[in-house]
Amino acid sequence: MAAAPIAPLRDSRIVALLCLAEALSMTGFAAYPAFLPTLRAAWGLSGAEAGFVGGAFFFGYMLAVPLLSGITDRIDARGVFAFSCALAAAGTAGFALLAHDMLAGALWQALTGAGLAGTYMPGLKALTDRIGGPRQARFIAFYTSTFGIGTSLSLLLSGWLGAVLPWRTAFALLALGPLLAVPAVLAGLRAQRPQGAHRASWLPRFGAVLAVREVRRYVFGYALHCWELFGLRSWLVAFIVFAYAAGSAHAPLLNATEAAALINVLGLPASILGNEAAGRWGRRPWIAAVMAVSGLLCWLAGFAAAWPWWLMLATLALYFVATMADSAALTAGLVAATPLAQRGAAMAVYSLLGFGAGFVSPLAFGFVLDAAGGGALAWGLAFGTLGSGSLAWAAWSRRREPAGKV
After folding, report:
1. Cα–Cα distances in angstroms (integers) from residue 329 to residues 21, 147, 246, 286, 375, in the given order
2. What is the pTM of this model?
3. Which of 24, 66, 69, 264 has its CA 20 to 30 A from that of 111?
4. Lowest mean pLDDT among 191-195, 267-271, 353-357
5. How far, in Å, CA of 230 to CA of 357, rounded?
6. What does residue 126 show for φ and ψ, rounded to 5 degrees?
7. Maximal CA-CA distance, the chain
8. What's the CATH code, domain 12-187+195-400?
9. CA nearest 108: which of 26, 24, 28?
């Protein structure tokens, strides 16, 4: 007798399933930043070259996201998610087995990034296709905040495995996470065709999406958010290693990957509570205020290397919280501003520009680090590149829009 089909999950259980699957799909996400000090020494990478390999991840995402996210207006995002987990696993395993220099490393990082392109926003599309109503914005905040959990999990696993195994073996084991996410999504979600699928194009129509002024606002805001966030994440472990060597005489309680993972975990409550605050005080005023604060804090964090280790980490944590406090507010704003039948295309262009900025940001950071000599001043100036766009967006938003709830 055939087994009865698994009943579809609803509401909070759907969100929990997709959050779990997204975190598992990201186990290889932070492996390169976690092993960056080791790989810079082993491969003789300059700061710009190291930033190029880190940025290649986001370049792969940028190339793949128009198709993998855009087609979710036409086909079920569930299948796109499962296929893309296989891409992420292949990229992480390929880096472990075949990466020996900058170019090969960048290639496999790009493939891993393409895998994330088909899980992060398509996972959100799978959620919004199945859950609507007044709680949708809150569920979106829970899901997008899972990105920080996935990053922290990846950093922790990389640090723990790297402490007992060669880096190649650790990388290979991290490829297992995306493979575990596949059966979870396929078994836990019932197939569901998107609304208006028969009218949707196989390729996203960005022009129609960007014609909506409110959508444009959130798309460009997210690009600046990603410039700051992914530049910080790409260099966070390397900066902590530098600061430990340059600063306190007392031994830190946390190693660099553990400290970075703990800092990333703080992004979860920061994003969720930031979305709640945006609903209370107005989305645009909240985002502008948060971007102004993070754009100033980046300078303080960048010049904290010589401080006592605990104060340096606290400053980094405060900066990271400010960087994440507008994340869910931006994404929830995009979803609310986009017609239902165009959400896949909107998420595609949103991610395209956001992760495109994530590709350039680590490279720009590394270039400044090299040009300024690699010392404490250089790190401070490199951190300063992260928040410049946020300051500009905050000033532009306040000049163009009166205060008030939106």
Report:
1. 22, 14, 37, 9, 36
2. 0.76
3. 264
4. 191-195
5. 8
6. -60, -35
7. 70
8. 1.20.1250.20
9. 28
